[in-house]
Design goal:
It is found in: Secreted. The structure is a single chain. The chain is an alpha+beta fold. Helices cover 31% and strands 36% of the residues. The chain binds 2-acetamido-2-deoxy-beta-D-glucopyranose (2 copies).
């Protein structure tokens, strides 16, 4: 376009040379000025385009660079996550191995230990007489798992009434409520919706996951009290009895189930409370309760820690404590405490639950069914257990 304009100008200059007048000279000046202006604008325009081009180029280089580094970052994070997962699994396995290998007996002064042992033996003899020794079974394995339902909250508990001839199921969703749902049978519970259950409104709300039903009564931790246990008649919802259990309420029973401050349990021998006492280094304490008058019969300080524990249950006067990790893993029974002193934790193998990543917030043993009714992260599951006579263990 430039050259064309110049040619035109030169031509017109050549033609009008003879009759040049002041007017023409003026015109010429005007044209020159115009052209100079146009040129200037053109140059500016070109420069602008170049700048914009440069900017776009810079930007795209930057974006490409960032994309590349993001990709690198993503790969790094993924590798790290994989590594951590692998390491965790390895540590878990190592810990299991070590705990199987090392006897966890602390060195204590022999004389003192002997004295203590003698005292305990005497105590145990007395207890044996009062409780009877006809109950003689021990847990040897957790056999199979059946997930029967997924309902309610992440936390909760459910149980089958252990009363002879009863098939009723009780369902406690969450950590605190004044309602318990009652189902006629396991079948109605499994197949039905929660709305079809019979809701029972209690005179006071319950707390935690350690409730128990026994002979038509519900025993539970009254919410917003540190240590009150209520015995409520399920038919007319009246409080039949209540008690305060000293030492309870300052620590959760199990470190991994933080809303449960007392865990009630039923076994072949009767009604129990499991709790954690800070006076006793956070170890678990078990108390046998008289179920009719709700009075303490006897208390045992166990050798099982509440640290990393998620749940526990009683079978035949033996406490079995279930441990896990905070992030959910494979649950295992790593500590037991036998009030009859027949089986011992250090001689018993670690018992694993069927492989599945779990967080058990409650477990209830049913003495007649020989099953555990467990609440696993909002799933209601049943574990069959293997039992043997204590003499064979
Ligand atoms: C109490 O339980 C009932 C029945 O399971 C449920 O509908 C309700 O949401 C619960 N309330 C709280 C506060 O969790
Ligand atoms: C509730 O029922 C039980 C058992 O039938 C009975 O012993 C008790 O007196 C009843 N309580 C009230 C207040 O009706």
């Amino acid at each position: 376009m430039y050259t064309w304009m110049w040619t035109l100008l030169v031509l017109s200059l050549g033609l009008g040379h003879a009759q040049r007048s002041t007017q023409e000279a003026f015109m010429m000046q005007y044209f020159e000025r115009r052209i100079a202006q146009l040129e200037e604008r053109l140059i500016k325009c070109e420069q602008n385009t170049q700048q914009v081009d440069q900017k776009i180029y810079d930007l795209s280089t930057k974006v490409r660079g960032q994309l590349a580094s993001m990709e690198v970052h993503r790969t790094e994070v993924k590798t790290q996550v994989d590594n951590v997962a692998m390491r965790m699994e390895r540590v878990e396995r190592d810990v299991e191995y070590l705990e199987n290998k090392t006897p966890n007996q602390p060195h204590i002064e022999v004389e003192e230990a002997l004295m203590e042992q003698q005292m305990k033996d005497t105590q145990k003899k007395i207890v044996k007489i009062t409780l009877g020794t006809d109950c003689n079974i021990a847990l040897t394995g957790v056999k199979s798992l059946k997930i029967v339902k997924k309902a309610g909250d992440v936390y909760g508990s459910w149980l089958k009434d252990p009363t002879k001839g009863s098939a009723k199921i009780y369902f406690f969703s969450g950590n605190k409520n004044n309602t318990v749902l009652e189902f006629k049978s396991l079948k109605t519970f499994t197949e039905g919706r929660l709305a079809q259950a019979h809701p029972i409104q209690l005179p006071f709300p319950w707390q935690g996951t350690g409730h128990v039903v026994y002979n038509g009564f519900l025993y539970y931790h009254r919410a917003d009290t540190p240590n009150q246990i209520l015995k409520v008649h399920l038919l007319n919802r009246t409080v039949a009895d209540s008690m305060l259990l000293p030492g309870v309420g300052r620590l959760p029973t199990y470190a991994l189930t933080t809303h449960t401050f007392l865990d009630l349990a039923v076994d072949e021998l009767g009604l129990w409370v499991i709790y954690s006492d800070p006076e006793f280094g956070g170890n678990l304490v078990i108390t046998k309760l008289d179920k009719s008058s709700l009075a303490v019969e006897h208390t045992w300080d166990t050798t099982c820690t509440s640290r990393d524990a998620e749940s526990a249950f009683m079978i035949c006067g033996t406490l079995y404590v279930v441990y896990n990790s905070r992030y959910g893993g494979r649950s295992s029974i790593q500590c037991l405490y036998d009030i009859h002193d027949t089986i011992h934790s250090e001689e018993s193998p670690v018992l694993f639950f069927p492989k599945r990543y779990t967080n058990h917030y409650s477990m209830h043993y049913h003495p007649k069914d020989k099953q555990l009714y467990a609440w696993d992260d909002g799933y209601q599951t049943i574990y069959k257990v293997d039992l043997k006579s204590k003499a064979e263990v």
